[in-house]
Specification:
The structure holds two protein chains of two kinds.
Chain A lengths: L4 H10 L6 H18 L34 H4 L5 E2 L2 E2 L6
Antiparallel strand pairs in A: 1-2
Chain B lengths: L8 H13 L4 E4 L14 E5 L26 H8 L3 E6 L21 E2 L2 E5 L5 H9 L4 E7 L5 H7 L2 E4 L19 E6 L2 H11 L26 E4 L7 H13 L4 E4 L2 H22 L18 H12 L2 H13 L6 H22 L4 E5 L8 H5 L3 H6 L5 H5 L4 E9 L2 E9 L13
Parallel strand pairs in B: 2-3, 2-6, 9-10, 9-11
Antiparallel strand pairs in B: 1-3, 4-5, 6-8, 7-8, 7-12, 11-13, 12-13
Helix pairs in contact in B: 7-9, 7-10
The chains are: A mainly alpha, B alpha/beta.
Protein backbone atom coordinates (compact mmCIF):
# COMPACT_ATOMS: atom_id res chain seq x y z
CA UNK A 1 0.00 0.00 0.00
CA UNK A 2 1.30 3.44 -0.93
CA UNK A 3 1.02 5.95 1.89
CA UNK A 4 1.55 9.42 0.48
CA UNK A 5 0.16 12.93 0.53
CA UNK A 6 -2.64 11.99 -1.89
CA UNK A 7 -3.91 9.24 0.40
CA UNK A 8 -3.81 11.55 3.45
CA UNK A 9 -5.73 14.25 1.58
CA UNK A 10 -8.33 11.71 0.37
CA UNK A 11 -8.88 10.47 3.93
CA UNK A 12 -9.01 14.05 5.29
CA UNK A 13 -11.67 14.95 2.71
CA UNK A 14 -13.78 11.96 3.78
CA UNK A 15 -13.25 12.87 7.45
CA UNK A 16 -14.15 16.54 6.81
CA UNK A 17 -10.88 17.78 8.31
CA UNK A 18 -8.79 20.70 7.09
CA UNK A 19 -5.12 19.82 7.62
CA UNK A 20 -2.05 22.05 7.58
CA UNK A 21 1.01 21.01 5.53
CA UNK A 22 2.74 20.11 8.82
CA UNK A 23 -0.17 17.86 9.81
CA UNK A 24 -0.23 16.16 6.40
CA UNK A 25 3.46 15.32 6.73
CA UNK A 26 3.03 14.09 10.30
CA UNK A 27 0.05 11.89 9.40
CA UNK A 28 2.01 10.31 6.53
CA UNK A 29 4.60 9.18 9.10
CA UNK A 30 1.96 8.15 11.64
CA UNK A 31 0.04 6.10 9.06
CA UNK A 32 3.21 4.18 8.15
CA UNK A 33 4.10 3.43 11.79
CA UNK A 34 0.60 2.59 13.01
CA UNK A 35 -0.43 0.50 9.98
CA UNK A 36 2.84 -1.40 10.30
CA UNK A 37 1.90 -2.13 13.92
CA UNK A 38 -1.59 -3.28 12.82
CA UNK A 39 -0.10 -5.57 10.16
CA UNK A 40 0.55 -8.15 12.89
CA UNK A 41 -3.07 -9.23 12.27
CA UNK A 42 -2.14 -10.30 8.71
CA UNK A 43 -0.85 -13.53 10.23
CA UNK A 44 -4.17 -14.44 11.87
CA UNK A 45 -6.43 -16.88 10.03
CA UNK A 46 -10.02 -15.72 10.62
CA UNK A 47 -11.76 -17.96 8.10
CA UNK A 48 -14.82 -19.56 9.73
CA UNK A 49 -14.77 -16.97 12.54
CA UNK A 50 -17.78 -14.71 13.11
CA UNK A 51 -17.52 -11.09 14.20
CA UNK A 52 -18.43 -10.09 17.76
CA UNK A 53 -20.11 -6.79 18.60
CA UNK A 54 -21.67 -7.38 22.04
CA UNK A 55 -19.57 -9.96 23.93
CA UNK A 56 -22.67 -11.36 25.65
CA UNK A 57 -24.57 -12.12 22.42
CA UNK A 58 -27.65 -10.06 23.24
CA UNK A 59 -30.73 -10.57 21.11
CA UNK A 60 -32.32 -7.52 19.53
CA UNK A 61 -33.98 -5.50 22.23
CA UNK A 62 -36.65 -2.94 21.42
CA UNK A 63 -38.75 -0.75 23.69
CA UNK A 64 -42.52 -0.52 23.50
CA UNK A 65 -43.80 1.80 20.77
CA UNK A 66 -45.52 4.25 23.09
CA UNK A 67 -46.21 7.95 22.63
CA UNK A 68 -44.24 9.98 25.16
CA UNK A 69 -43.70 13.68 25.79
CA UNK A 70 -40.89 15.10 23.64
CA UNK A 71 -38.61 18.07 24.18
CA UNK A 72 -40.02 21.61 24.02
CA UNK A 73 -38.69 23.88 21.28
CA UNK A 74 -36.81 25.93 23.86
CA UNK A 75 -35.07 22.76 25.03
CA UNK A 76 -34.29 21.64 21.48
CA UNK A 77 -32.58 24.96 20.68
CA UNK A 78 -30.96 25.42 24.10
CA UNK A 79 -27.47 24.64 22.75
CA UNK A 80 -27.68 26.13 19.26
CA UNK A 81 -28.34 29.15 17.08
CA UNK A 82 -32.06 29.42 16.29
CA UNK A 83 -33.94 31.21 13.53
CA UNK A 84 -37.69 30.77 12.96
CA UNK A 85 -37.53 27.49 14.89
CA UNK A 86 -34.84 26.04 12.61
CA UNK A 87 -31.19 25.28 13.33
CA UNK A 88 -28.90 27.78 11.65
CA UNK A 89 -26.37 26.10 9.35
CA UNK A 90 -24.47 26.52 6.09
CA UNK A 91 -26.11 26.35 2.66
CA UNK A 92 -26.65 22.82 1.42
CA UNK A 93 -27.51 23.70 -2.19
CA UNK B 1 -17.02 3.75 53.73
CA UNK B 2 -20.42 4.45 52.29
CA UNK B 3 -22.14 1.62 54.15
CA UNK B 4 -21.30 3.42 57.38
CA UNK B 5 -21.97 6.87 55.99
CA UNK B 6 -23.82 9.12 58.41
CA UNK B 7 -25.23 11.61 55.91
CA UNK B 8 -23.67 14.67 57.51
CA UNK B 9 -23.46 17.89 55.54
CA UNK B 10 -19.91 18.20 56.82
CA UNK B 11 -18.78 15.61 54.30
CA UNK B 12 -20.10 17.68 51.43
CA UNK B 13 -18.29 20.77 52.79
CA UNK B 14 -15.06 18.78 53.12
CA UNK B 15 -15.14 17.27 49.62
CA UNK B 16 -16.05 20.57 47.94
CA UNK B 17 -13.24 22.32 49.85
CA UNK B 18 -10.80 19.67 48.67
CA UNK B 19 -12.10 19.90 45.10
CA UNK B 20 -11.46 23.65 45.15
CA UNK B 21 -7.93 23.04 46.49
CA UNK B 22 -7.34 20.62 43.58
CA UNK B 23 -8.93 22.49 40.68
CA UNK B 24 -6.46 21.01 38.18
CA UNK B 25 -8.33 17.69 38.44
CA UNK B 26 -11.60 19.30 37.34
CA UNK B 27 -12.86 20.87 34.13
CA UNK B 28 -15.70 22.32 36.19
CA UNK B 29 -16.68 22.35 39.86
CA UNK B 30 -20.43 22.46 40.59
CA UNK B 31 -22.23 24.82 42.97
CA UNK B 32 -22.34 23.17 46.38
CA UNK B 33 -25.67 21.68 47.45
CA UNK B 34 -26.90 19.10 49.93
CA UNK B 35 -29.37 16.25 49.54
CA UNK B 36 -32.22 15.71 51.95
CA UNK B 37 -32.89 11.99 51.66
CA UNK B 38 -31.84 8.66 50.16
CA UNK B 39 -29.47 5.83 51.06
CA UNK B 40 -26.60 7.76 49.46
CA UNK B 41 -27.54 11.01 51.17
CA UNK B 42 -24.69 13.53 50.86
CA UNK B 43 -22.30 10.98 49.33
CA UNK B 44 -20.15 12.97 46.90
CA UNK B 45 -19.46 11.79 43.37
CA UNK B 46 -17.11 13.36 40.87
CA UNK B 47 -17.98 12.63 37.25
CA UNK B 48 -15.66 12.26 34.25
CA UNK B 49 -16.29 15.07 31.79
CA UNK B 50 -17.52 12.60 29.15
CA UNK B 51 -20.42 11.43 31.37
CA UNK B 52 -23.10 14.08 31.08
CA UNK B 53 -24.88 15.77 33.96
CA UNK B 54 -28.07 17.80 33.49
CA UNK B 55 -27.46 21.56 33.48
CA UNK B 56 -23.70 21.08 34.03
CA UNK B 57 -21.41 21.95 31.09
CA UNK B 58 -20.09 18.60 29.79
CA UNK B 59 -17.45 18.61 27.07
CA UNK B 60 -15.72 15.23 27.06
CA UNK B 61 -12.52 17.22 27.46
CA UNK B 62 -12.89 18.72 23.97
CA UNK B 63 -13.09 22.29 22.68
CA UNK B 64 -15.56 21.10 20.05
CA UNK B 65 -18.17 20.67 22.80
CA UNK B 66 -17.59 24.17 24.27
CA UNK B 67 -20.70 25.37 26.05
CA UNK B 68 -22.66 22.09 25.73
CA UNK B 69 -25.26 22.16 28.49
CA UNK B 70 -27.06 18.77 28.64
CA UNK B 71 -30.83 18.48 28.95
CA UNK B 72 -30.58 15.24 30.91
CA UNK B 73 -28.15 13.25 33.07
CA UNK B 74 -26.53 9.95 32.17
CA UNK B 75 -28.60 7.06 33.55
CA UNK B 76 -25.85 6.08 36.00
CA UNK B 77 -25.60 9.64 37.35
CA UNK B 78 -29.39 9.95 37.60
CA UNK B 79 -29.70 6.68 39.53
CA UNK B 80 -27.10 7.86 42.06
CA UNK B 81 -28.60 11.35 42.40
CA UNK B 82 -32.06 9.79 42.87
CA UNK B 83 -30.57 8.03 45.91
CA UNK B 84 -29.17 11.22 47.40
CA UNK B 85 -25.68 11.47 45.89
CA UNK B 86 -24.21 14.93 45.22
CA UNK B 87 -22.26 15.77 42.04
CA UNK B 88 -19.05 17.66 42.90
CA UNK B 89 -17.84 18.41 39.38
CA UNK B 90 -16.58 17.20 36.02
CA UNK B 91 -13.09 15.66 36.11
CA UNK B 92 -10.30 16.12 33.57
CA UNK B 93 -9.52 13.55 30.90
CA UNK B 94 -7.79 12.98 27.59
CA UNK B 95 -9.96 14.46 24.83
CA UNK B 96 -12.85 12.00 24.30
CA UNK B 97 -10.72 9.39 26.17
CA UNK B 98 -7.97 9.28 23.53
CA UNK B 99 -4.89 8.58 25.65
CA UNK B 100 -3.08 6.65 28.36
CA UNK B 101 -1.33 9.54 30.10
CA UNK B 102 -3.92 12.35 30.21
CA UNK B 103 -1.60 14.57 28.16
CA UNK B 104 -3.85 14.45 25.05
CA UNK B 105 -6.17 17.06 26.53
CA UNK B 106 -8.38 19.18 24.30
CA UNK B 107 -7.42 22.68 23.20
CA UNK B 108 -7.57 25.05 26.19
CA UNK B 109 -7.59 22.26 28.85
CA UNK B 110 -4.75 21.67 31.30
CA UNK B 111 -2.82 18.46 32.00
CA UNK B 112 -3.38 17.08 35.54
CA UNK B 113 -0.32 16.12 37.60
CA UNK B 114 0.20 12.88 39.53
CA UNK B 115 -0.70 13.28 43.24
CA UNK B 116 2.60 11.59 44.27
CA UNK B 117 4.94 13.48 41.92
CA UNK B 118 3.95 16.56 39.94
CA UNK B 119 6.49 15.75 37.23
CA UNK B 120 4.67 12.52 36.41
CA UNK B 121 1.45 11.56 34.65
CA UNK B 122 -1.86 10.72 36.37
CA UNK B 123 -2.53 8.16 33.66
CA UNK B 124 -5.38 8.33 31.24
CA UNK B 125 -7.82 8.82 30.14
CA UNK B 126 -9.68 9.16 33.48
CA UNK B 127 -6.72 10.96 35.08
CA UNK B 128 -8.55 13.72 36.94
CA UNK B 129 -11.06 11.36 38.57
CA UNK B 130 -8.44 8.90 39.83
CA UNK B 131 -6.06 11.65 41.00
CA UNK B 132 -8.78 13.44 42.95
CA UNK B 133 -9.87 10.12 44.45
CA UNK B 134 -6.33 9.69 45.80
CA UNK B 135 -6.25 13.25 47.18
CA UNK B 136 -9.76 13.37 48.66
CA UNK B 137 -10.09 12.53 52.37
CA UNK B 138 -13.90 12.78 52.49
CA UNK B 139 -16.52 10.24 51.40
CA UNK B 140 -16.13 10.27 47.66
CA UNK B 141 -16.51 8.04 44.61
CA UNK B 142 -15.43 8.95 41.12
CA UNK B 143 -17.47 7.97 38.08
CA UNK B 144 -14.99 7.18 35.35
CA UNK B 145 -15.04 5.45 31.96
CA UNK B 146 -12.94 2.91 30.10
CA UNK B 147 -12.78 2.05 26.41
CA UNK B 148 -9.37 0.35 26.36
CA UNK B 149 -8.04 0.74 29.89
CA UNK B 150 -8.93 4.30 30.84
CA UNK B 151 -9.98 3.36 34.38
CA UNK B 152 -7.35 0.77 35.34
CA UNK B 153 -4.39 2.76 33.99
CA UNK B 154 -4.92 5.99 35.96
CA UNK B 155 -6.05 4.00 39.01
CA UNK B 156 -2.71 2.18 38.86
CA UNK B 157 -0.65 5.39 38.50
CA UNK B 158 -2.62 7.15 41.28
CA UNK B 159 -2.77 4.22 43.72
CA UNK B 160 -6.55 3.69 44.02
CA UNK B 161 -9.02 0.92 43.20
CA UNK B 162 -10.34 1.25 39.66
CA UNK B 163 -13.27 -0.96 38.66
CA UNK B 164 -14.41 -1.61 35.09
CA UNK B 165 -17.58 -3.74 34.78
CA UNK B 166 -18.64 -6.28 32.17
CA UNK B 167 -19.56 -4.46 28.95
CA UNK B 168 -23.27 -3.61 29.22
CA UNK B 169 -23.63 -4.01 33.00
CA UNK B 170 -23.95 -0.23 33.35
CA UNK B 171 -25.99 1.80 30.89
CA UNK B 172 -24.02 3.96 28.44
CA UNK B 173 -26.93 6.37 28.01
CA UNK B 174 -25.54 9.86 28.52
CA UNK B 175 -21.93 8.86 27.93
CA UNK B 176 -20.22 10.88 25.19
CA UNK B 177 -19.23 8.02 22.87
CA UNK B 178 -15.70 6.96 22.04
CA UNK B 179 -16.25 3.37 20.81
CA UNK B 180 -19.80 2.11 21.28
CA UNK B 181 -18.93 -1.58 21.42
CA UNK B 182 -16.17 -0.94 23.98
CA UNK B 183 -17.22 1.91 26.29
CA UNK B 184 -17.90 1.07 29.95
CA UNK B 185 -18.69 3.40 32.86
CA UNK B 186 -17.05 2.33 36.14
CA UNK B 187 -15.74 3.66 39.44
CA UNK B 188 -12.58 4.71 41.26
CA UNK B 189 -12.32 4.75 45.05
CA UNK B 190 -9.85 4.25 47.88
CA UNK B 191 -12.18 1.62 49.29
CA UNK B 192 -13.27 -1.49 47.40
CA UNK B 193 -16.41 -1.97 49.50
CA UNK B 194 -17.57 1.50 48.43
CA UNK B 195 -17.35 0.39 44.80
CA UNK B 196 -19.19 -2.89 45.49
CA UNK B 197 -21.87 -1.02 47.41
CA UNK B 198 -22.49 1.75 44.88
CA UNK B 199 -22.53 -0.65 41.91
CA UNK B 200 -25.82 -2.12 43.13
CA UNK B 201 -27.50 1.29 42.77
CA UNK B 202 -26.42 1.70 39.16
CA UNK B 203 -27.11 -1.61 37.39
CA UNK B 204 -30.31 -2.77 35.70
CA UNK B 205 -31.74 -2.64 32.20
CA UNK B 206 -32.09 0.84 30.72
CA UNK B 207 -34.57 1.24 27.89
CA UNK B 208 -32.42 4.07 26.55
CA UNK B 209 -29.44 1.73 25.98
CA UNK B 210 -30.32 -1.43 24.05
CA UNK B 211 -26.93 -2.95 24.92
CA UNK B 212 -27.52 -2.68 28.68
CA UNK B 213 -27.99 -5.93 30.59
CA UNK B 214 -30.94 -6.95 32.72
CA UNK B 215 -29.04 -7.74 35.93
CA UNK B 216 -30.29 -7.14 39.45
CA UNK B 217 -27.73 -7.97 42.11
CA UNK B 218 -26.18 -6.61 45.28
CA UNK B 219 -22.44 -6.87 45.76
CA UNK B 220 -20.27 -7.17 48.88
CA UNK B 221 -16.68 -8.07 49.72
CA UNK B 222 -15.87 -11.76 50.32
CA UNK B 223 -12.58 -13.28 51.49
CA UNK B 224 -9.85 -14.49 49.17
CA UNK B 225 -10.30 -18.03 50.45
CA UNK B 226 -10.94 -20.59 47.73
CA UNK B 227 -10.32 -18.18 44.86
CA UNK B 228 -8.72 -19.98 41.89
CA UNK B 229 -6.05 -17.67 40.49
CA UNK B 230 -4.12 -17.80 37.22
CA UNK B 231 -1.08 -15.59 36.63
CA UNK B 232 -0.80 -14.68 32.94
CA UNK B 233 2.85 -15.21 32.06
CA UNK B 234 2.82 -12.87 29.00
CA UNK B 235 1.58 -10.08 31.28
CA UNK B 236 4.70 -10.25 33.43
CA UNK B 237 7.07 -9.20 30.64
CA UNK B 238 7.31 -5.79 32.35
CA UNK B 239 9.54 -3.63 34.55
CA UNK B 240 11.23 -6.06 36.97
CA UNK B 241 10.45 -3.83 39.96
CA UNK B 242 6.73 -3.77 39.13
CA UNK B 243 6.71 -7.56 38.80
CA UNK B 244 8.45 -8.01 42.17
CA UNK B 245 6.01 -5.75 44.03
CA UNK B 246 3.06 -7.80 42.72
CA UNK B 247 4.56 -11.22 43.46
CA UNK B 248 5.53 -10.05 46.95
CA UNK B 249 1.97 -8.83 47.52
CA UNK B 250 0.45 -12.15 46.43
CA UNK B 251 2.85 -14.03 48.69
CA UNK B 252 1.99 -11.77 51.64
CA UNK B 253 -1.72 -12.45 51.06
CA UNK B 254 -0.91 -16.19 50.77
CA UNK B 255 -2.63 -16.35 47.39
CA UNK B 256 -1.88 -19.59 45.57
CA UNK B 257 -1.69 -19.41 41.80
CA UNK B 258 -0.79 -21.27 38.61
CA UNK B 259 1.00 -19.71 35.66
CA UNK B 260 -1.13 -19.65 32.51
CA UNK B 261 -0.58 -18.46 28.95
CA UNK B 262 -2.78 -16.13 26.89
CA UNK B 263 -0.33 -15.85 24.03
CA UNK B 264 -2.92 -15.09 21.32
CA UNK B 265 -4.68 -12.32 23.25
CA UNK B 266 -1.48 -10.53 24.20
CA UNK B 267 0.04 -10.84 20.72
CA UNK B 268 -2.97 -9.44 18.85
CA UNK B 269 -4.97 -7.54 21.45
CA UNK B 270 -3.47 -4.07 20.94
CA UNK B 271 -3.85 -4.06 17.14
CA UNK B 272 -7.40 -5.45 17.18
CA UNK B 273 -8.46 -3.09 19.95
CA UNK B 274 -7.07 0.06 18.30
CA UNK B 275 -8.63 -0.76 14.93
CA UNK B 276 -12.10 -1.27 16.43
CA UNK B 277 -11.73 1.77 18.72
CA UNK B 278 -10.54 4.13 15.96
CA UNK B 279 -13.16 3.00 13.46
CA UNK B 280 -15.94 3.57 15.96
CA UNK B 281 -14.42 6.85 17.19
CA UNK B 282 -14.21 8.27 13.68
CA UNK B 283 -17.89 7.47 13.16
CA UNK B 284 -18.92 8.92 16.52
CA UNK B 285 -16.97 12.13 16.03
CA UNK B 286 -18.65 12.71 12.65
CA UNK B 287 -21.59 14.30 14.45
CA UNK B 288 -19.52 17.24 15.72
CA UNK B 289 -20.05 19.76 12.96
CA UNK B 290 -20.74 23.13 14.58
CA UNK B 291 -24.54 22.93 14.54
CA UNK B 292 -27.12 21.96 17.17
CA UNK B 293 -24.61 22.02 20.09
CA UNK B 294 -21.01 22.73 20.98
CA UNK B 295 -18.49 24.93 19.17
CA UNK B 296 -19.90 27.09 16.38
CA UNK B 297 -18.65 29.94 14.25
CA UNK B 298 -19.85 32.50 11.74
CA UNK B 299 -21.69 30.59 9.02
CA UNK B 300 -19.60 30.87 5.85
CA UNK B 301 -19.20 28.65 2.81
CA UNK B 302 -20.99 25.39 2.04
CA UNK B 303 -21.58 22.42 4.35
CA UNK B 304 -18.23 20.77 3.75
CA UNK B 305 -16.25 24.00 4.12
CA UNK B 306 -18.01 24.98 7.35
CA UNK B 307 -17.83 21.52 8.94
CA UNK B 308 -14.16 21.07 8.02
CA UNK B 309 -13.27 24.47 9.49
CA UNK B 310 -15.10 23.82 12.78
CA UNK B 311 -13.51 20.38 13.13
CA UNK B 312 -10.06 21.81 12.40
CA UNK B 313 -10.58 24.38 15.18
CA UNK B 314 -12.27 22.07 17.67
CA UNK B 315 -10.28 18.82 17.62
CA UNK B 316 -6.85 18.35 19.21
CA UNK B 317 -3.98 16.42 17.60
CA UNK B 318 -4.81 12.93 18.89
CA UNK B 319 -8.51 13.30 18.05
CA UNK B 320 -7.56 14.22 14.48
CA UNK B 321 -5.14 11.28 14.30
CA UNK B 322 -7.77 8.79 15.42
CA UNK B 323 -10.43 10.25 13.13
CA UNK B 324 -7.98 9.98 10.22
CA UNK B 325 -6.89 6.40 10.96
CA UNK B 326 -10.44 5.26 11.71
CA UNK B 327 -11.81 6.86 8.55
CA UNK B 328 -9.07 5.19 6.52
CA UNK B 329 -9.75 1.75 8.05
CA UNK B 330 -13.45 2.02 7.14
CA UNK B 331 -12.92 3.18 3.55
CA UNK B 332 -13.95 1.01 0.63
CA UNK B 333 -11.28 -1.60 0.01
CA UNK B 334 -9.87 -1.48 3.55
CA UNK B 335 -12.92 -2.17 5.72
CA UNK B 336 -12.76 -5.98 5.54
CA UNK B 337 -8.99 -6.02 6.01
CA UNK B 338 -9.13 -3.90 9.16
CA UNK B 339 -12.47 -3.39 10.94
CA UNK B 340 -14.16 -6.71 10.10
CA UNK B 341 -10.97 -8.65 10.69
CA UNK B 342 -10.45 -6.96 14.06
CA UNK B 343 -14.01 -7.89 15.10
CA UNK B 344 -13.23 -11.52 14.22
CA UNK B 345 -10.01 -11.40 16.22
CA UNK B 346 -12.15 -10.05 19.08
CA UNK B 347 -14.21 -13.28 18.90
CA UNK B 348 -11.00 -15.33 19.11
CA UNK B 349 -9.68 -13.30 22.06
CA UNK B 350 -12.94 -13.81 23.99
CA UNK B 351 -12.67 -17.57 23.38
CA UNK B 352 -9.04 -17.48 24.55
CA UNK B 353 -10.04 -15.92 27.89
CA UNK B 354 -13.17 -18.08 28.27
CA UNK B 355 -11.04 -21.24 28.11
CA UNK B 356 -9.03 -20.01 31.09
CA UNK B 357 -12.14 -19.04 33.05
CA UNK B 358 -13.31 -22.66 32.90
CA UNK B 359 -10.49 -23.41 35.34
CA UNK B 360 -9.76 -20.10 37.08
CA UNK B 361 -11.99 -17.54 38.85
CA UNK B 362 -9.61 -14.68 38.13
CA UNK B 363 -6.56 -13.96 36.01
CA UNK B 364 -3.84 -11.59 37.20
CA UNK B 365 -1.26 -9.37 35.50
CA UNK B 366 0.32 -6.04 36.34
CA UNK B 367 -2.06 -3.22 35.33
CA UNK B 368 0.62 -1.19 33.58
CA UNK B 369 4.11 -2.29 32.48
CA UNK B 370 5.70 0.56 34.46
CA UNK B 371 5.04 3.14 37.17
CA UNK B 372 3.65 6.56 36.16
CA UNK B 373 6.10 7.99 33.61
CA UNK B 374 7.60 11.47 33.73
CA UNK B 375 6.18 14.04 31.33
CA UNK B 376 9.66 14.43 29.79
CA UNK B 377 9.72 10.71 28.96
CA UNK B 378 6.20 10.80 27.50
CA UNK B 379 7.29 13.56 25.11
CA UNK B 380 9.89 11.19 23.67
CA UNK B 381 7.44 8.33 23.10
CA UNK B 382 6.30 7.62 19.54
CA UNK B 383 2.64 7.20 18.62
CA UNK B 384 3.07 3.42 18.58
CA UNK B 385 4.91 3.51 21.94
CA UNK B 386 1.87 5.30 23.36
CA UNK B 387 -0.53 2.68 22.00
CA UNK B 388 1.65 -0.22 23.17
CA UNK B 389 1.48 1.12 26.75
CA UNK B 390 -2.03 -0.42 26.73
CA UNK B 391 -0.72 -3.92 25.98
CA UNK B 392 -1.95 -5.35 29.31
CA UNK B 393 -5.38 -3.72 29.05
CA UNK B 394 -6.35 -3.86 25.37
CA UNK B 395 -7.43 -7.52 25.15
CA UNK B 396 -9.46 -7.54 28.34
CA UNK B 397 -11.29 -4.36 27.29
CA UNK B 398 -11.86 -5.62 23.76
CA UNK B 399 -13.41 -8.76 25.25
CA UNK B 400 -15.63 -6.75 27.64
CA UNK B 401 -14.38 -8.65 30.70
CA UNK B 402 -14.76 -7.02 34.15
CA UNK B 403 -11.48 -6.02 35.77
CA UNK B 404 -10.10 -4.25 38.78
CA UNK B 405 -6.92 -2.34 39.55
CA UNK B 406 -5.71 -3.18 43.05
CA UNK B 407 -3.08 -0.81 44.54
CA UNK B 408 -0.57 -3.33 45.89
CA UNK B 409 2.49 -1.31 46.87
CA UNK B 410 5.10 1.21 45.81
CA UNK B 411 8.18 1.32 43.62
CA UNK B 412 10.43 4.39 43.84
CA UNK B 413 7.70 6.04 45.94
CA UNK B 414 5.16 5.63 43.11
CA UNK B 415 2.11 3.31 43.26
CA UNK B 416 2.07 -0.10 41.58
CA UNK B 417 -1.21 -1.60 40.39
CA UNK B 418 -2.23 -5.24 39.95
CA UNK B 419 -4.93 -6.13 37.44
CA UNK B 420 -7.53 -8.75 38.43
CA UNK B 421 -9.72 -10.00 35.57
CA UNK B 422 -12.92 -12.06 35.86
CA UNK B 423 -15.32 -13.73 33.44
CA UNK B 424 -18.35 -11.84 32.10
CA UNK B 425 -20.81 -10.95 34.87
CA UNK B 426 -18.57 -12.53 37.53
CA UNK B 427 -17.86 -9.21 39.25
CA UNK B 428 -18.25 -11.01 42.58
CA UNK B 429 -14.85 -12.64 41.94
CA UNK B 430 -13.25 -9.19 41.86
CA UNK B 431 -14.86 -8.06 45.10
CA UNK B 432 -12.56 -10.01 47.41
CA UNK B 433 -10.34 -9.14 50.35
CA UNK B 434 -7.53 -7.66 48.32
CA UNK B 435 -6.63 -5.13 51.03
Amino acid sequence: MIIDKDLILRVAKNARLNLSEKEIKRFEEDFRDVLDCFSVLDKVDVSDVDITLHPLNLKNTVRKDEIKASLTLDEVFKNSKRKDNFFVGPKSL
Amino acid sequence: MIKDFDGEKGNVDLVFDEANQNKDYFNLICDKNYSSSGKLKNVCISVKDSIIVKDVISRGGSKILDGYNPLFSATVVQRLVNNGAIVVGKTTQDEFGFGSFNVNVGKGFSVPKNPFDSERSCGGSSGGGCAFTQKCTGEHISLVESTGGSIACPASFCGVFGFTPTYGLLSRYGLIDYGNSLDKIGFASKYLDNIANILGYCIGKDENDSTSLDVNEKYSIKSLKGLKVGLVSEGFDVDEGVKNVIIEYLDTKKVKYDEVSLDFSYKYGVAAYYIVAMCEASTNLAKYCGMRYGLSDEIKGDFNQYFSKIREEGFGNEAKRRVMLGTFARMVGYRDAYYIKALKVKTMIIKDYKKKFKKYDVLITPTMPFIAPRFDDIKNMSVVDNYMADKLLAGVNLGGFPHLNVPVGFLNKMPVGMLVIADHLMEKNLFRGWL
